[in-house]
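Hello support,

Our group uses your service weekly, and this is the first time we've seen a run hang past the timeout. The protein is DUF4038 domain-containing protein. I'm not sure whether the cause is the sequence or the server load. Input pasted verbatim:
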Amino acid sequence: MTLGNHPLSHATSVAPLQHASRSLPRLQVHSSSHYLQTEKGDPFFWLGDTAWQLIHSTTREECSYYLQTRATQGYTVIQAVVLAEMNGVRKPSALGLLPFKDEDSLRPNDLYFDRVVEIVDEAARYGLYVALLPTWGDKLTAPWGDGPRIFRNDNLATAHTYGSYLAKKLKGRTNVIWMLGGDRPARIRDCGSEYLIEKAKSFDIDSKQDWTPIWAALADGLNVEEHALTLYHPQGGSESTSILLRDADWLSVNGIQSGHGAGRDTPNWELIARDYALTPAKPTLDLEPNYEDHPYNPWPAWDPATGYFRDYDVRKQLYRSVFAGACGVTYGHHAVWQFASLRNGVINHADRDWIDALQRPAGRQAVFLRRLIESRPFFARAPDQSVLLSTTNRRADHVQATRALDGSYLLVYIPCADQPISLNLSSMPQGERTAWWYDPRTGIGTRIAQSFSGSKVDVTTPPYGPDWVLVVDDARSGFGPPGLDAWNS
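Update from on-call engineer: The timeout came from a worker crash unrelated to the input. Re-ran successfully.
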């Protein structure tokens, strides 16, 4: 574990920042029901970062450094929690503030919530949207977690009042996205997960327990002032929002958490494909795939021999979920979400501090996925595994494809070097085609000399990498190379 003695790690200034505000266009669901756009009609790619403890665990200087860094790196959404997981109600924040007086949500500390507003405004200054979780799930679905259990089925008005208070505080902030949940199931009733059922039973939670009325009351309070895009961050596993919240009219976007406990190459592409095929359709995305530098499946105890998830593990999950039909994806780093430092301490075997972690490979490479998707017509994209004539049952080798509905381009994520695949290109117009190897480590596309004419093409990835994206374009489309220069132009 490396905890650097960074100057920022000791900053404790409480002087308010002075900066000009910036209004960003609101986000909304595109007419296709699968993707997001701004209210101006511009495509919006969700490239999120889990900064769960940002509000509670950073000083002003640290927060500014974090936001500026992620904005410069090309992120679009920051996911942060108002009532933080790590004892965020009873333990003062890095600025010495508690959210409530005597743990009473009906007696909010305006200074604490003024700081929330400052962070949202500063994020807007950097062009960032904030997916704001009003509370981590343990303040509602305890007993697992620090709690305390503030919101309950017998005090729904309290959840509504808290939501309304937040909405009024953040009135007019067009870069706010609401995200409920906080790594907890919305209900145990009719849940198909044996893991969740057994966990609930171990805490004497009734198998018919349903917390959705509390979330609905909170959502209603949040939207009293003005409507905003609303999501739910579920616990890991297949019981995601499209299962447990299928009838929630406040839910704008479905979310999954493929997480960190099921090993490498968890098939998040299957969960995304399931959500994509639902009727009526909603956008969907993986709100928490495996974090970079997170210990491999550390529950109930970590075996150090299994190591950590590194950049290659992360890239595979990011690309395959987006190519399966997601409207974007959330990256996460194990030291960043908790803001691991000498002051904040370390949770669950983090191997470095958050400042070093901001420069880790996958965190810097994630924007190359965004740039690739934005380099081609955005709303025309749809997942299509029928273009693959060769398949594998090994998750580690799983190939994922997406293409334009009009056949103008095809993108194929291939996870291994020297991996042969056979393609069915009959969905593309016949004639001349151009093809590129897009490097997800550098964001550079290199022209392939091999011919891609005809309906069937066999191709093998380069012998190094390990992972690649094959880009095939209809030559008449006029698309340039899917690289940095093409995106910046």
